[in-house]
Structure formats: C-alpha cells, structure tokens
Amino acid sequence: MTSPANISQTIRVHRTSESIWKRGDHWVWLTGGTLVLCLFMIMIVVGIILVNGATFFWPKDVRLYEMKDGKKYLAIMRQKEVIPPAQARDQKLQADPNRRMVMVGNRDMYSQDFVWLNDQEILSSSRPPDVWVMDRREYGRFIGYLHFLQTKDRKLEGAEAAAVLPKAMERARELFDRIYRIEKSDIGAVNLQMERARLRQRKVERLGQGEKMASEIRSIEQATASLKEKYDAYVKEIAQLRSEMGQDRIGLEDVNGTVKELPMASIMEAWQPNQMGFFAKTGSYFTRLADFLMDDPRESNTEGGVFPAIFGTTLMVILMSIAVVPFGVLTAFYLCEYARQGPIVRAVRIALNNLAGVPSIVYGVFGLGFFVYFIGGNIDRFFYADALPTPTWGTGGILWASLTLALLTVPVVVMATEESIMAVPRGMREGSLALGASRFQTLKNILLPASLPGILTGVILAMARGAGEVAPLMITGVVKLAPSLPVDGLTPYLHLERKFMHLGFHIYDVGFQSPNIEASRPMVFTTALLLILLVIALNLGAILLRDYVRRRYTTGAFH
To answer: Are strands 297-298 and 303-304 parallel, antiparallel or unpaired?
Structure first.
C-alpha cells in the first residue's frame, strides 16, 4: 500500500506542476531562451564581420613556398582547409590532406591573384626578409623584390634604392595629387561654365531675336573663348606635370626573376612586412585604414577607399529624415487630435499598417515612375528645356532616392508618433484647455514636447531601416561609381540631382558583381562592418538627442 507520506508528496508535486503551467512559467523560459538565441546569433554574425573586416588592413607576413615540382611562390596566407575526399582521391593524396589559398598578387603577370597549394606538395616554407608588398593603382598588389629605382638623374639598386624609395613615392604622389586636383576641380569648373554658356546660348537662340540676340550671342562666344583658353592652359599644365612624373620609374622583380618596370606614380604604398615589428605594423594598419575611409574606389570597387559611399549614405539618410519627419508627425497629430474617429480614419490606419509590409522594391518602382519620370521630367520640360534630351532632374538622383525612402519609412514614424501622443495623460490636455489655451496651443506647447521622445524613436527606426535599404536605390539614383559628390565647391554647392554611391549597394556590387571574387571578399566584410558602424553612429546621435529631450520635457507620465 502507498503510504500517506508518498500520497502527500505526489499531491504537492502535482500542484506545483499545475501551478507552473497556470502561471505560464514555461512561456517565460521559452521567450527568454528565444531572446538569448537571437542575441547569440547576432553576436556570431557581427563577430564574423568584425574579425574578417577589422583584420583586413593588418600587414601579414609573406612566405616563400618551394614546391616539389620546382615552382616557387611568394605569397600571403589567406585561408586553410581540408581537401574534400572526392578531390583527394582524384589527386591520389594521403588521408586528411590540407590545402591553403595564398595571395600571389602580380595580376598583370600571372592573370590571377590567388592560387591553391596542397600542403603535401610543399617542399619548404620560409620568410625572406627583403621581400616587398606594394599597393598599385592598377592590377592590385605586387609581391616581390625591388630591382632598381630610376630617378631624374640616376639609377639606384639594392639598399640605395630602398632608402630613396619613400621620398620618390612622396614626390610622385604629390605630382599625382596636383594633376588630380586640376582635372577634378579646375577643369571641372571650366567645363561647368562652358556647359552653362552653351545652354544660355541655346536659350537666347530659341527666345531672342534681332540685334539684342546677336549682341548676347557675341558676349557668350567671347566668354566661351576665354574659358577655352583657360582650359587649354590647364591641359598644358597637366601635360607638363605628367612629363615630370614620368621621369621616376621603378623596377620590380618577381620570385621567378622577371622584372617589370612601372612609373613611380603607379605605386601608392610599399612596405616590407617580414621586417616590420608590432608597432610598425600597427602604424601601417591605421594608415591603410585612413586611406580606406578617405580615398575613392579603384579596380571595379575591389580596392581603394569608400569615401564617396560613406558620404552618399550619410547625406541620403539626412535628407530622408528631413523629408519623413514633418509628414509623419503631421499625419500622426491629425489622426489623433483632429480627425473624426470613424471608418475612414480606421481605414487610413489599416493602410498605414499594410504599407509597412510592402516590399521595398515596390517603393522603388513607384519612386522611379512618380518622382523621376513624372516630377523630374516635368521640371526638365519647364525649367531645363535647353538641356534636353539630356535629362537634369528626369533621371535618378540622391533627392529622388531620399524621397522614395522617406515614403518607405513614413509608416514607422506615424505609428511611433501616434503611440507617443496617446501616452500623454489626458489630464494635461484638459488642463491646458481649461486654462483657456486653444487646441493648437495645447498641441504645440503640451503634446509636442511631451511626445518628442517617441517621435525621435520613430526617426531612429526609420534611419536604421533607410540606411540599409538597397533595392529602391538601384532604380532611383545609386550607381557603382559616382564621378563627383553631391556636394562640392561649384554653385549651387548642393547638387541634389546627381547620382551617388551607397555602402549597401557597394557591398552588393563588390560581393556579387565583381570579376575577382577572392580579392573582393575582404572588401565585402570591411564595408559591411563600416555600414554597421555608420548606422550605429547615426542612431546613437538620435538616441542622445532623444534622451536630452526626455530629460528636458519629462513629466510624471514618463518617469
């Protein structure tokens, strides 16, 4: 027989189990575990991006691999893996063979940047101290030896060439930068003035008549002739600088003894990683990181910097926020404070909720049709008729892309603002109205300050989503490589009609459209890490502003 003590214990266990299920403790553990799992997966993704992106600029050692078949490779280790069993059997390799992918560089000589080496075929591996790694403006990195250095008046070899190399590179870089500034700024300004003069002449010919038209055309032709003289002077100066820059040349030798002669200006940076200590590598790391943040892209975006993409992303998010906040806030205040609650208002709210789930590419198609073709096309037809058929506003640009993303994120701002308005205690409204304030005064002086933290929360969410969207931008203004920034020193200084670069599209282009996948893979991780940091920085600024507003306008309802 079962003893009374056992029966009592069984009843207590049953009651405890029943109370746990009634209290819903299992759901608490399930939701908490799900949260931990999501955070863990996010940490893994961010960790992978951080490790692969942050270590890209560290100067890695160069090793000399001598193979059993007599071949030699000067290369940088990239990754190591186990050869798949099927391939190992086909190559008749021993059990559990490994292989490594190494970067040999010298794309113009070998037609490839990376090769796979089977560990079982490597005879020896060493670290030659005198090997150089050089970043070039074209064809990627060169890995080899410094053979000679040809300056204006002498030819140096060996240690003398290595000692003079930094000064020669600095001089070549200064000449290259001078040429770049003339081509980008000076000649660009002259071309812009010549184009405006041409359009002004077309307008005079289209609208003018008689002596007045002839006089204006003569004035325009004289101004154009003066601009042409200035243009020719810049071209002559560039030719002289190029001739001076071509006097310095460098001879590079690969591991097989083949010597390649290049102009010194083609070398952007050179270092000897096998001779560098920790502090020297740290300095080189931050130098290359600064170049990545401040330079323009090269080699189909697989090398160089991403400054135009950083600038374009930041400016687009700012323009989007400026556009979305007024419309979202005004809509929310109207729906909460002025609109008569009924089926129409409920339908509007349902529509807003549904708009939040519409695929982003649909917004892109709408932006292309409405903003670009309809609004931009009509602007060109009425105000830029002399420039047609070349469109000015009737093509993709950063303004149209920003407005498209503003439409995409309006539902987020509206819903966040509505929730913030409804959280304001009703007594505050009634107290303001009882003291004689109008509805608008109550809205401006009571409701708006009290709901500002919630409004800024909506802006933060909108910025986070807008900064990462790519699909709408692909058809409303983003490009692979923008020739000029939307902001420059030429009037009107802010050119909202120009196309722009975006970090999200840059990741897509480098990761999926690059002809050299292995070379572009580190750039994908680095740019993704940069985009994450940029979104965090923008959101952090909005969060700090929200906290300041909350402290300033805090009330009992927000404690």
So the answer is: antiparallel
